[in-house]
Amino acid sequence: MPTLKPKHRPFCFSVKGHVKMLRLVFGLLAAVCCIADGVLIYRKLLFNPSGPYQKHSIHDKIVL
């Protein structure tokens, strides 16, 4: 009795292929957004520090 082989579809045309490609795209997009967010936070803290770690000029100190 001959066996029937399932029809082979290319990966990109299957449903699982579309889902995997979408996951890859959203993963790459999330990674880019995380890197951009980190860079923006780093620049903000580097060029505009606030709080107890703010750099003061030596002329700002009052000497008694």
TrEMBL record:
This is Chemokine like factor. The gene is CKLF. The chain crosses the membrane at residues 21-42. Keywords: Membrane, Transmembrane, Transmembrane helix. The lineage of its organism: Eukaryota, Metazoa, Chordata, Craniata, Vertebrata.
